[in-house]
């Protein structure tokens, strides 16, 4: 744990820290950075802006319904899922098909990816991800249907995910009848998990949650997969991979403009650049252990590296896993890379506390 510091020296200290981390891997904007219009970015994203400020989203990734029962035609099915409504936001819940006997499972609260602007719990790539982790860890998963920008700018995403934590706490306290899936959850072993923008959300929500009494929940860890962060200055990897097919630099710039609170003109906003987190840096030492997954073929990799350095500096326990040539969202396209990710996350989750893994004690419900 980092030592307590008084506020004035902490301020100077934070400033020095900030400059130090930036000097590690940030440099000037690339000269000769090509000009792109925001219309090009909108085309790349499959979005169109209506005069009333709402977006039409025409991304060609299918949405799928939950699978609450075993479908005998689907031999690949590994988990059950169901949607919960009537809460502040809808949630999609997952449980493995086979539940261990007499044993509760870790509880995952999951924030999907999509640059804060796109996608849903029902987008097939995130639905499959949740099915996989529910079956493999195994775990009970609560995937949050948070609101999207620009109709709802940050911190709406953080608020909705924090509310999901409160909903789970109320489930633990049986304030309302408990959902049957959550009967299998160990509320003292909660993990926040996010992919891409979801990892940014998980990070901020973990920090915010420190201000609340969540008893009897215990957030034991934070898992960040290819976290979506940014900043005004470009990193080496952002410049090297600026035309990346998944997260091109000019597209990211437009996305931050859509997602950040108005006037949304500064990517050193604390929601975007974790090093400028003036209002929350003091809370960082109180974070639970953090798992960081990044890939050298992802323009965002340097942002994760800087985050790992910062967390370590503040005394947070960090486990990081870097893939050599994976690109952004590699787990959606490469099953070997997906398995490496699942294995890394599972190892992290089971390394915390006394949660000994026992094989061969599973029974179908
Ligand atoms: C968005 O979709 C609506 C309904 O399909 C359509 O009327 C409108 O023209 C679209 N807006 C843009 C900017 O394409
Ligand atoms: C399984 O496939 C059969 C034959 O195609 C079909 O009649 C049945 O409705 C399917 N069951 C489910 C649960 O989809
Ligand atoms: C951005 O880079 C410039 C030039 O290297 C530097 O002067 C400035 O301090 C950097 N800004 C931040 C916020 O690190
Ligand atoms: C898939 O990922 C694995 C592990 O990261 C890597 O070794 C392999 O080359 C990748 N396959 C393809 C086709 O990219």
TrEMBL record:
Keywords: Hydrolase, Signal. Belongs to the 'GDXG' lipolytic enzyme family. This is Arylacetamide deacetylase. It holds the Pfam family Abhydrolase_3. Its EC number is 3.1.1.1. GO terms for molecular function: carboxylesterase activity. Residues 1-32 form the signal peptide. Residues 108-330 form the Alpha/beta hydrolase fold-3 domain.
């Amino acid at each position: 744990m980092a030592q307590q510091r008084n506020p004035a020296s902490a301020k100077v200290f934070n400033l020095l820290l900030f400059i130090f981390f930036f000097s590690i891997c940030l440099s000037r904007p690339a000269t000769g950075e090509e000009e792109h219009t925001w219309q090009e970015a909108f085309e790349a994203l499959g979005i169109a802006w209506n005069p009333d400020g709402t977006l039409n989203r025409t991304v060609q990734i299918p949405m799928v319904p939950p699978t609450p029962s075993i479908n005998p035609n689907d031999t690949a099915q590994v988990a059950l899922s169901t949607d919960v409504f009537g809460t502040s936001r809808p949630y999609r819940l997952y449980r493995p098909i086979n539940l261990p006997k007499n044993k509760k499972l870790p509880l995952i609260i999951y924030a999907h990816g999509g640059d804060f602007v796109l996608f849903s719990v029902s987008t097939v790539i995130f639905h499959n991800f949740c099915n996989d982790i529910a079956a493999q860890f195994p775990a009970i998963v609560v995937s949050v249907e948070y609101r999207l920008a620009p109709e709802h700018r940050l911190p709406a995403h953080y608020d909705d995910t924090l509310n999901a934590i409160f909903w789970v706490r109320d489930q633990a306290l049986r304030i309302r009848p408990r959902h049957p899936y959550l009967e299998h959850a160990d509320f003292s072993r909660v993990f926040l998990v996010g992919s891409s923008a979801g990892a940014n959300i998980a990070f901020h929500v973990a920090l915010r949650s420190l201000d609340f009494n969540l008893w009897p929940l215990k957030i034991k860890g934070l898992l960040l997969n290819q976290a979506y962060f940014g900043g005004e200055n470009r990193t080496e990897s952002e410049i090297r991979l600026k035309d990346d097919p998944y997260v091109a630099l000019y597209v990211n710039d437009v996305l931050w403009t859509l997602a950040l609170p108005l006037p949304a003109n500064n990517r050193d906003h604390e929601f975007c650049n974790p090093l400028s987190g003036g209002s929350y840096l003091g809370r960082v030492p109180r974070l639970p252990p953090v798992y960081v997954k990044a890939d050298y073929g992802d323009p965002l990799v340097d942002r994760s590296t800087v985050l790992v350095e910062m967390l370590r500096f503040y005394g947070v326990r960090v486990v990081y896993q870097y893939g050599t040539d994976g690109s952004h969202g590699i787990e959606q396209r490469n099953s070997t890379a997906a398995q490496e990710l699942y294995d890394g996350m599972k190892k992290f989750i089971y390394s915390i506390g006394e949660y000994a893994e026992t094989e061969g004690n599973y029974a179908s419900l």
